[in-house]
Amino acid sequence: MELHDIQRGVLSPRPSPYAATYILFRVDDRADGRELMRRVAAVVTSAADTISPLGETWVSVAVTYRGLRALGVPQPALDTMAWEFRQGMAARATALGDTGDNASEHWETPLGSPDVHVVLVALAPDTPTLEAAIDRARPAYEQLAGVTAIWRQNCHALPTETEPFGYRDGISHPAVDGSGIAGSNPLEQPLAAGEFVLGYPDELGGVQTTTPDVLGRNGSYVAFRKLRQDVAAFRRFLRDNSADVDEQERLAAKLMGRWRSGAPLALCPQHDDPELGADRERNNAFLFRDDDPDGFATPCGSHVRRANPRDSAVAGEPRLHRMIRRGTAYGPLLPEGVLDDDGADRGLIFAFVGAHLGRQFEFAQTQWMNDGVFFGGGSARDPIVGLGEGLSDYTIPRRPVRRRLAEVPRFVTTRGGEYAFIPGISALRWLGELTD
């Protein structure tokens, strides 16, 4: 792989802890938009960089379909890009389950609107370092009258590596053949580079590309999602369906497929093991097909088994739907023990990276997260992040009688999102050099 030309945010797992920010830009003047591309091309960190040009701060940039049009990319070139990308996430709302109060008309302004053109993501070891980097960078775009920053979301990764529901997050990461970056599961064979980056053969032997090649090569598609988490409702659900605190934790583990420490039920089904949960060499080293085909340890409907079925026979060919996932918490944590919503906006900013929006993100969202047909679960949605109207149900296999939870509410709400393209660094320079 041409690692020097691939943005580091595509392939490299994020450090921990860290602070991050997402800044959205609207391009009103084509020349200024191109100048922005030239400037970010000089500071974006590549996958080959062990040290960022900005020190310990990483910068990545993505461009939406409307953003590419605003920069003046010729329409014949745009027509060679993924059709889901050309439509945009808001136009795909019904298919993705973004209906009712998840619908795009309820999204946070300006998410999902035609004004979102460029997405800049910056990471740093801590908030003061991040703010200092943003302050230094601000004049670079504020001097461009034709480029306007229209939205910003600050995020964070705690030293505990937990997300708002209290689970250790960011554990699973696929190995990409040719990247030199190890995956988190030693039992998983590296995936073909073309599953995640354009210009390389994928698992089926095909090569995703664009015309001209420079636009797409070494780039990746990304689905950004802002999901609000109702932590108080989640805690009440655990309390109302458990006899005591210990049972609450067992139920939480059965919903996720891991104890909140990160220890997988596949390796310790009867009790938590925080030491295992914190061990990056062991906490993701498991499969399902031979060890737990019926879900007695890890329920087939649990989040980890839906999001990554691994070698599960009922999921078809999971390798064709594998994505690189980046999740970052935002908003204040709800204090421990609080069962009433305090009105604060909290949740996760997700970034799903791959070369095939349709058979990766959209397939996983519609077939695995929002439906249970693939494992015999009917219309039951993912108990953690599934979207849909009304209540769902959830089954925990056990002997002699399974446990069925008939009224599982939805704990997340879509607050916005967008499809974007993360260009290779050469493509950023090409965008900056476009002429009319």
Concise account of the structure shown:
Belongs to the DyP-type peroxidase family. The chain has 436 residues and is α+β, with helices and mostly antiparallel strands.
Helix fraction?
A: 10-25%
- CA-based shape: globular
Number of domains: 2
- Rounded mean pLDDT score: 93
- Give the radius of gyration: 21 Å
Spatial sequence of strands, sheet with the most strands: 2-3-1-4
SS elements, strand count: 10
Report on the biggest sheet.
4 strands, antiparallel
User: Strand pairing plus helix content: what structural class?
Assistant: alpha+beta
Strand content: 15-25%
Stretches with pLDDT under 50, minimum 5 residues: none
| Count of helical regions | 14
End-to-end distance, in Å?
32 Å
List the helices and strands in order. Answer: HEHEHHHHEHEHEHHHHEEHEEEH
Features:
metal-binding, globular, peroxidase, 14 helices, Dyp_peroxidase, Dimeric_a/b-barrel, 436 residues, four-stranded antiparallel beta sheet, 19% strand
Layout of secondary structure:
Elements: H1 8-11, E1 18-27, H2 30-43, E2 58-63, H3 65-70, H4 75-78, H5 83-87, H6 93-96, E3 118-124, H7 127-142, E4 147-157, H8 213-216, E5 220-229, H9 231-240, H10 245-256, H11 274-277, H12 303-307, E6 324-330, E7 347-354, H13 358-369, E8 392-396, E9 403-408, E10 412-422, H14 425-432
Helix pairs in contact: 2-14
